[in-house]
Amino acid sequence: MISKIKTCFNKDRVNLGRQTELDIAKGIAIIFMVFCHAFEMLCWFFNPEISTDFAYVLLDVILGGSFAAPVFIFCMGISFAYSRRTSAGDMFKRALKMAGIVLIFEIARTALPGLLQWVISGDPECIEYVYMFFNVDILQFVTLALLVIALFKKLKLKPLVMVIIAVICSVIGQLLQGVSTGSYIGDIVAGFLWNSNEYAYFPLLNWLIFPVCGYAFSGIWQRLQDKEKFFRIVTPVSWVISIVYFASMAFFGEYYLSGGEYYGLGILDAVFALIICFSMIGLGYYLTKWGGRISNWLSSMGSRVTSFYCIHWTIYYYLYVFLFCFLEDYISQWLIIPVSILIIAASDLLSKAYKNKKFKNKV
Predict the structure, then answer these.
(1) Are 193 and 133 in contact (CB under 8 A)?
(2) CB 329: neighbour CB atoms within 10 A?
(3) pTM of the predicted structure, to 2 decimals
(4) Contact 152/100 with Cβ under 8 angstroms?
(5) What's the angle, vertex CA 352, arms to CA 28 and CA 273, rounded to 5?
(6) Which of 9, 142, 296, 332 has the maximum number of C-beta atoms within 10 A of its C-beta?
(7) DSSP 3-state of 224
(8) pLDDT by residue (tens digit) across 139-174?
(9) What is d(CA 230, CA 214) in angstroms, rounded to the nearest whole number?
(10) CA nearest 70: which of 125, 136, 18, 142?
(11) Could you tell me if residue 261 is left (phi over 0), alpha (psi between -120 and 50 degrees) or otherwise beta?
């Protein structure tokens, strides 16, 4: 099989231009995130007992887990190499721009809804949600990852060296899982590196392996000359491994190779997540051939995934405030899918409008 895969590649960089299958994979990943976040914000926070229900396990743990964030981050790592600006300085500027987006995003998503919830309910514990402004979400992680890759490029490290460093970071991150600095502020700062507090969702050490492997693999990806043959071999194998991996969780527990910690993902679970990335990219490739309008829509969504991500998360937080302050209850699990579909539609329209406005301003 390895020898057949090798024949899919050229010595020269022939696979250039927009990689639609990556956009589609990111589009599917963000849809899975929408369903995952619906369960978390509109059900689980009110009733943690649903964590054993089949719908929650499927949409939050499985599809909203390794089929979502790792795929998004890995594809992002590949796409770095396809950017028109790929120097260390360009990466640094991109990180600064992302940091600005994160600042505005967290004010809109966590600080303001937290203050609003506190003012309406009068519950002093609600002010805790304002502290989530300092959480380490996926965009905060992307900012740090860009800085790290910029440093790697500045040092002119080879792709293999980058991957080795990322693997070492993954092991260290798993060893530091749950380790506290002993102070609240210290844990907030440490949370950007490892899973030191409940709001450290995407710590750098644990998750660096995905963008780095994506970026390192981009050099190979650009030499891919026979996508049809490549995906015909790789896609079924990666899907079989992915299915067996998740089936094993039924016996050993979710993310058992990382002590049950998804956000504190260890190296072994990360390896399986990387295999899942190829299964999703393979799905994206076949959708480019057979998906028609659906593939066009997913590709479009994947190309503006950052704005879509910010919009859908912000909507969910205000919905949470509404449920907490006025209904004082969570929505039925049966409503999760229709609500998620509405959020997808709203986020899609608003992210398109934002992209069109940016384009008009440039013109």
Answers:
(1) no
(2) 10
(3) 0.90
(4) no
(5) 20
(6) 142
(7) strand
(8) 999 999 999 999 999 999 999 999 999 999 999 999
(9) 17
(10) 142
(11) beta
